[in-house]
Design goal:
The complex is a heterodimer. Helices cover 38% and strands 18% of the residues of chain A. The longest helix of chain A is centred in the middle third of the chain and has 14 residues. Chain B is of the alpha+beta class. Chain B has one domain. About 3% of the residues of chain B have low confidence. The chains are: A alpha+beta, B alpha+beta. Chains A and B meet through β7 of A and β3, β4 and β7 of B.
Chain lengths: 296, 201
Amino acid sequence: MWILFCLQGFCTEPSRHPLIKEANVTSTREQAIAFIGKIKELDPSVYWPNIRPALFLQNLKTNIHNPLSIYPGNSTNFCGYGAFTYLFLQDDPLGYAKLLVQLYQDGKARFANIDLNPSPAVQKAAGRLRFKGVLDIRPAEQMWFLTLAGHYKGYLNLFNRKYDPGDENKFWASCNYAKFNRMVRTLLNFKVKAKGADLMRPRVGNLYEYIRKKIETGTVVLFINNRIVHKKNHVTIKLGVPTHFIIAEKISMENDVITLVYWDYGHRTLMQLSPDFFKRIIFGITYCTKRVRDAD
Amino acid sequence: MLIKRIHIILFTGITGFIFSCSPKNISTKYYYQNEKVLDKIEETYKQLNQWAPFTIGFTGRSFTTVSVEIITDTLSYIYEFAVDDPRLMDTLDKYHPSPAKVFELIKQMQSIRCTWIRNLDYYVDEKKNSLIFMSIKPVSLKAPLSYHKYYVLTYFQQPQYFDSEGRLLDKRKLRRLRKINGEIFHRINDKVCYTISGNFR
């Protein structure tokens, strides 16, 4: 059964919400800036007792003006939700702004036919996460990541489904590949083509060429084994499993060296790697195009 | 009776050997034994990092391959070179106003098996502060029971608060332990703390 769960990422299933229309969800950054600019002040929310309204509003404005600044936090398992939010802000910044304001004011929200109804434990935790770097002072991102982690569940969350303080660093918040793709398909106006799985690398022929071509025509999310990209210790034998989501922005190859520019954790990074190493780290390639176009 | 005594002697000997190599023992001494060189590395890094932000790490066990991350406003560049590779100096030349000093720092780090150095932001009462995070793989931590352990130091800019057991606190009024990279830190002096960790970054 576990293997079946893992293999979910392989298939290129159609959207589970085919009724989503582009006009309903896609917007421009200017529209989002205009919307958020009109909100001068927010009242404290009874649903989110630890969120300071002024800081919430400031955080929302930062995200909309600068989507690159999204920061999933040190030592958390929020990287999948961070990459998802980056896509959200590319696709529909106005929808993001309205959704977060609604979630803040009403304690729950409905978006793209999905009801987000965070638990009291999540509502209490948002605004109180500490020692996560700049996420400490970003209550809107805390609220959003915790809400997503509480709502979407995958096999990695089977044994820890109820939030307790500290669970943002544990399996409660983990995001497997199929779950990430499911979030994109259900909430965003993207057509998703996913290759790869949690335990098996994608079969796409020439990996470099495949990713290069996809970057030219859409947004590409890579599910990578970060343990060997950003080593944290000198252990020689490392588990060959993916642990991290990044947005691939540019890729090129010269003299058998691949140069990859990607987004994660609030900024862009340029990294050079050999084709062999590149092959070793990639487990999932999610190719997103606007739903009006054919993802092929 | 004789056998019992032999057992006691053997047990004491083995236990003594194990604990003489333990991280706990090394943590109390290591900083003071190497204070000058550690403080010099921190001071040099702090100065060079102000001119152009970067991190340095040794990702291989042999301490011959250096990973350099150069942080600019728009992009972070991550490169990995052998320490004697001419491309390392070329890269430093391109991104840092004082490449020779950065190279000197790399050599100094290599000499004491310093695995990682970086500037880390943290927040107190919504205000941004920064500290220097430095990890070392001392030879003594190669003992069997501490094989994958690193000695991690944090240099704060302001004096910190500690509980009665010398553990780093979040702030004076709130008696909550401050964690850095998920680890609890212990007092060396008002501004310097240490921990023993399984990770160097």
